[in-house]
From TrEMBL:
InterPro entries (alphabetical): Glyco_trans_2-like, Nucleotide-diphossugar_trans
Keyword Methyltransferase listed: no
Domain Glycosyltransferase 2-like: 8-173
Protein name as catalogued: Glycosyl transferase
Keywords: Glycosyltransferase, Transferase
GO molecular function terms noted in the UniProt entry: glycosyltransferase activity
Keyword Cell wall biogenesis/degradation: no
Family: Belongs to the glycosyltransferase 2 family.
Enzyme Commission no: 2.4.1.-
Domain of life: Bacteria
Enzyme class: transferase
Amino acid sequence: MTAAPFVTIAMPCLNEEGYIEACLRSVAAQDYPRDRIEILVADGGSTDRTREILANLSEQDPRIRMIDNPDRIQAAGMNQIIRQARGDVMVRMDVHCEYAQDYVRRCIEVLERTGADNVGGAQRPRAKTWFQRALCAALTSPAGVGGASYRSADNEGFVDTVFLGAFRRRVFETAGMYDPKAITNEDAELNQRIHEAGGKVFLSRDIVVHYYPRTSYKALAKQYYKYGQGRARTLLKRGTFPSPRPAIPFAMVVTGVGLLATSRWHRLTLPAFALYAAATGVEAVRVGRREGLRAIPIVWGIFPVLHVSHGLGFASGLLRYGLDPDWTREPERLDPISVPIVANEPLEA
């Protein structure tokens, strides 16, 4: 057999006692060669049983190792892992996802086939509750995801960003590591820097991972408000977006507020809001009917929650980070000789 790259599985976590064991057991069962994987979990100071579970699992499987993430933020945890990783490929994983058994192997195959610097699969939603089923339907619509390539399991090719990601080690030496203060949008921001450094990101249908979306309107609104803030922070930091798509909800909110504020001088407000309601209603019927008639009004309500929450978060982020930037212009880069890489010795047949 030819040599297989040594892989570091990188997983930040915080208070995940309900998920961490099942996730790590599924990761440990990947069909990639066992002796070519290490699993590093950056814990942000969990106060539940997460650290105890991690200690027990590491005793059973020495490939699993816990490291501390005193900053608690996921992006900072990724950097802690990258500094200590021995792999020449870093595969980022999230505790709340389910991975196909060939996930790691497919990542390596796609990296080698395409020559990309980062590869990943689509962000495939999976439902347990009725609300999640409706939300999964909404997320299949361009009105829900804005045409983002990484949201569609049918897309394949070079893209702006992917879900999670499997990175060649050199990415962190050239484009830099994660922004340690980025609470959200850290993946897209890193991928933007990869492109700016001349690298490529590839989306593959063969890389399969599922995640569970939020379970209520309130939780969804909080999530997309934070997403909006993160996108605004990235825009201010990088000065540009790969595409104008992240700013569309903000433009919609500004337009809506402007129409309401000036409604005494024109008659466009009611027709504009009626057109939005009609368009999202038609789309709710189109994507929601596969889940049954009662899903349609739930999907219809999800669209404005996504748009308004993201738009308001974007506005908040522009104000917050415009007044008080919290980043440095030059990202920290990994020292290429800081941690020895495991040699790619031939595997036994």
